Amino acid sequence: MLLNYIGAFLLIVFGLYIILVKKNLIKIVVGMSLLDTGINLLLVSVGFRPGGTAPLFMNDLKPGSFFVDPVPQALTLTSIVIGACVTALALSLVIKVKEHYGTIDADKVRRLNG
Amino acid sequence: MKSNKKSYKSSPSTNKKSKNIKVNDVIITSCANVVLPIAIILGAYVIMHGHLSPGGGFQGGVLIAGAVAILYVAYGSDGVRKLFNITRLKASESMGALGFIFIASLGLIYGVGGYRFFANTISKGTPGTLFSSGTIFWMNFAVGYKVLTGIGALILIMVSSLNSNKE
Amino acid sequence: MDILVYIFNILIFPGFLFCFFFGLLLSGIDRKLVARMQRRIGPPVFQPFYDFFKLIGKGHIIPRGAAKKTFMLAPIIGLLGVVIISMFIPIFGYVFIPRTADMIVILYLLTVPAVALILGGSSSGSPYSGVGISREMVTMLSYELPLVIILLAVGSKVGHSLGEIGNVTFSLSKVAEYQSKNGMLICSLSMIPAAIAFLLCIPAEVGTVPFDVAEAETEICEGPLVEYSGKYLALYKLMSAIKMFIMGSLFVALFFGGTGFGTGIKFLPLNTLLMMILVIITISISVSFLRAIVARIKVEHTLKFFWTVPTALAFVSLILTYVTTL
Amino acid sequence: MNGYSSILPLMAIMLPFLAAFIIALTGNKALGLKRVLAVIFTFIPLLAVILLFKPIIENGHIVSYWLGNWVPEKTWAIGIGLEIDAFGLFCGLIITLTCFLSSIFSIRYMEKDNGLEKYYTMFMLLTASMIGFVFTGDLFNMYVMLEIMTFAAIGLTAFRNHKYKSIEAGFKYIVIGSLGSSLILLGTVLIYAQAHTLNIAQISAILHGNYNAVTIFALALMLTGYAVKAFLVPCHTWPADAHMSAPSSISMLLSGVMSKTGIFGIIRILYMIYRSKCVAAPSMEFLMIFWGTITMLIGASMAIIQTDFKRLLAFSSVSQIGYVIVGFGVGLSAKTSVAVTGTMGGLYHMLNHAMFKSLAFLCAGAVLYRTGTTDTTKLGGLAKKMPYTTVLFMISLASIAGMPPFNGFVSKWLIYQSTFEAGYWPVTIIALLVSVMTLAYFIKLAQSVFFGKIHKEHENIKEIPWSMRVPMIVLAAVCIFAGTFWNVISDKLIEPAAYAIYNIQGYIDVMFNKGYAQNMFNHEIPIPKMTRAMAGYWSPINWLLLFVVLIIGFIVIASLLSKGNKKESIIDLSDTKYDTFTGGEKEYFSHMAGNDLFWGLKHQFRGYFKTLKNAHSGIVNDYVLWVAACAAVVTIYLFAVL
């Protein structure tokens, strides 16, 4: 379990690092996606209970067995959907940026400043 | 195979500019022919069994929409564009969303439990069978439809904008 | 009956007519004083009245490129602004509209004449006006900061001893009440820097030398007023005369307030007379005297001056207030 | 709860969503139908909100609604609930009113653009998600609605994608906005890990007394996340780009309303979820007041050096949001009477800002509609051609600068009073100074756009059509109404909303059962007493007086001036005496444009302005760094003091 949290933390930090440091707009989008993934991993890990089964309502449940928390899983799904949308929208904007500016270098895409 | 030939003619010009995407490679085409039906059936399965097993409308929808991407890789943008009509896809997406809202508002219409949105009003059936869980099954269906058309349209738009970029 | 009294207040006594008369008179006295300081004979004291009525009678020209309605409305708005302020200033304990927030209202309303000047100049479309309003705006920004701090210093001094919520009052009637009990504010050490700062703010607010960058006749031909003529010019002249009176009486209300010089006499004509004398003294010190001895300074120096000297003085006052109340 | 009022909030959220998909279904045909649908389906939520007034404001109820009839099981929330208290309704009113007016304005304003089905779809999504955000009682639902809102806003920002600035603004917005959303999600996850529920009412009941390092970290993250949405400095970099590039009917929503949703989030967090940590905590009070003061100062400073109409308005929004945050910061004070004054000031300014800033953005839109540019250096002298727009802009100017008969004065005055009473007198000085700066840069707009000389190419422009004028007139009327009849606004909106902010016990009990909150908190939660007399508002008799003065003055002076009018009717305008005075030089085009107007100020503070200008470098990495640094600072501060 600890591994999950460490993994989530590292993913978030790497994602943030990429957004902060990389000047390529595509890489920034990758960083955002990585950040999202980290949060999703954390979200799933939060709901996990050791020894729990998948939260499926079946007839063949053994007595004494229990579910992992289903709510974070639902939330993760929502969050994944949103992350996918962010990535798609951001990538399409990058395409348009390339059309207008001829470059995807963050240092050059700065006509709106000051 | 007709489309195959047609796009083959135009391929040299595209090939020059983009070496990375090699259109109409025989290996890719035949692999895609095998994978495509599987992807679609798997997607359909995931949508239908959303209330019984992990998965659901969104995942199934994405799986099916992935087929569009496979189609693009295999047959190029011409093949994809011939097969799908973007405006129809968009309209279908709205239909999916409207269907979802309609199913959700069945609770309002029937007035079960004090006019509740999202109330599960249809007979729930026996747990574990395909037609169980009342409205959830249908909602999964609506979501799946919306997602497959939506993401399909998205991929299509991206593909066409990539192409227009090169020309 | 109340309404009638209000209307009387608005139109006659602390309001329009009184302001009209005394503002122009004050302006005449100022001119006479400056002339005497420069060893000239100077115009008669009632010269501003003659000027005003002469201008009213003259024709006027609205330039082709001007936004006509704004051009005509701007002086009226400015004049109404100053007349409204006059009703918020208590005359030795006589408060016409006692409200809790009148200091901030006055602070806001004092920007109205400046805004009117800016709007009028701006609508005339002349390049000289453009330069003029730009200077007017910077002047406005520069004197507003010390003015705010001065009012806060006075408010906290008074509010603290009257035990208001949060130890501050924004009410001029409270200031008057305090002064009639404890003597004039100018007598307390902590208020002297604020009073000096306020005296320095008056010329900038009124727009006289050395802070008349906005209207500098010799450089930009009266700036915002360059296209004005006839009655509109008369209204502007009247506005600035009344503004001078307002600033003087605000100073008196803030620092020389109380009931009749602490004598406790409550007789309106006498108090009014006393206040007029004090206003004349104030204006002669802060406006006429400065005007006679100093040359005009540049606009960027105006800003620098106001954000250093008067601001520092006002801050000293504010800090002294805090220290003494600790 | 009676039947109809419980279903109204749902209708307000669901119908705009429904309309969005119906509009999408129609494709690029039937433009008239889309317009009608947009107007109708933004009017229905407004109607729903107005109908909710009776149960919520007058009877003092809190309306709740469990989706799918998933009511709490053994006082444990398992479903998603909607919950509308007076504060939510207050925000809902701002949102629905502004969206309705924007939909009317869009009819003619967007007529030159193509792809309008996308515009209207996203417009309806934006409306629905904003209403959903303020009506929901579920923390994750807030996040989802926020994301829908962000997507719709980004889509609309980049809507005119043939312009480079729309695309660049959209990209910056999505990077910074989704970083903010990620921070909010992370905070939500951490709170869920501690409380194991997502219902706001229940979280606040459970977390009470159980705050630990994780929840404080969550607080820091969520504060920063919502600060991005409410554009507090240093997370204020995206609105300037986005508001400038979006169509004006959308800029109005972004600035007037979407910033309010960020503030809504901050208030729900501070006053409800972290109630016992934040309310009456001097350290939190200091943080919020400090943050707000920095925001208002930097926003106003940046606005002074802008030359683009809409970009200036965007920075002005930043500065006005600073006022609101200062008001709510004082609301965290331990002195209850001061706290109530601050909260009321913040609420009042929220309403006012939505109104006058929307009006200003619509004026910018009107100018853009007729002239095709918002660059103040290329405009001038429009007052002759567009008199209505000019008058409306002057109203918004007077309101935003806080001139006494208009609404800005009332709210700003409450904020001044509360900051001074709370002992933050330097903040009062800065607030008053910023108010003068606001007046200054708005006058700069007035001079460089509406007055001065007209450009040759704008000689033949006309006034905007009536369908665009009507929303502006409504907004202006609200501005004047809220300034003169402050007691009505205060009684009907501000006081109930301020009461609801503090009435956390009622909020929790409605969702579960009576006594649940007291049981969890072990004591009754105090609600400060509030009357409007305590706030020391400006008395209405003065407004009547002012009007009497104004009217009499106008009559007297107008009669004085009317003599000359007869002569004017026969004047010959081509006479040289009607030339502008130029000192004998040949007259040529010389308009005092926006960038020269503050020369004296800019020259004196050139170092400061240059630093600020360079800091807003336009590089997206820098902006992200600011947000990350802000999160780090807030985290460290909160760990240090809480």
Describe the structure in brief.
Chain A is mostly helical and 114 residues long. Chain A contains three helices and no strands. Chain A has one domain: Helix Hairpins (Orthogonal Bundle), CATH 1.10.287.
Shape, principal axes of CA atoms of chain D: globular
Helix content of chain B: over 70%
N-to-C SSE string of chain D, H for helix and E for strand: HHHEEHHHHHHHHHHHHHHHHHHHHHHH
**Which regions of chain B have little confidence, pLDDT < 50, spanning 5+ residues?**
1-19
| Radius of gyration of chain D from CA coordinates | 25 Å
Biggest sheet: strand arrangement of chain D: 1-2
Number of domains of chain D: 1
Instruction: Report the total helices of chain B.
Output: 6
Give the low-pLDDT segments of chain D: none
Mean of all residue-level pLDDT scores of chain B: 74
Structural class of chain D: mainly alpha
Name the biggest interface.
Answer: C-D, 80 and 74 residues
Largest sheet of chain D: 2 strands, antiparallel
Coarse structural class of chain B: mainly alpha
Task: Count every helix of chain D, treating DSSP H or I runs of 4 or more residues as helices.
Answer: 26
Instruction: Indicate the radius of gyration of chain B in whole angstroms.
Output: 20 Å
Shape of chain B: elongated
> What is the tally of beta strands of chain B?
0
Using DSSP, what is the number of strands of chain D?
Answer: 2
The sequence of SSEs of chain B as H and E is HHHHHH
Describe the structure using short key phrases.
heterotetramer; B: 167 residues; mainly alpha; 73% helix; 0% strand; D: 642 residues; 26 helices; 72% helix
Report on the structure:
The complex is a heterotetramer of chains A (114), B (167), C (326) and D (642). With 114 residues, chain A is mostly helical. Chain A contains three helices and no strands. Chain A is elongated and about 65 Å long. Chain B is mainly α and 167 residues long. Chain B has six helices and no strands. In chain B, 38% of the residues are buried. Chain C is mainly alpha-helical and 326 residues long. Chain C has one domain. In chain C, helix 7 packs antiparallel against helix 9. The N and C termini of chain C lie far apart (47 Å). With 642 residues, chain D is mainly α. Chain D has one domain. In chain D, 72% of the residues lie in helices and 1% in strands. Chain D contains 26 helices and two strands. Classes of the chains: A mainly alpha (114), B mainly alpha (167), C mainly alpha (326), D mainly alpha (642). Chains in contact: A-B, A-D, B-D, C-D. Chains C and D meet through helix 1, helix 4, helix 5, helix 6 and helix 7 of C and helix 16, helix 17, helix 18, helix 23 and helix 24 of D.
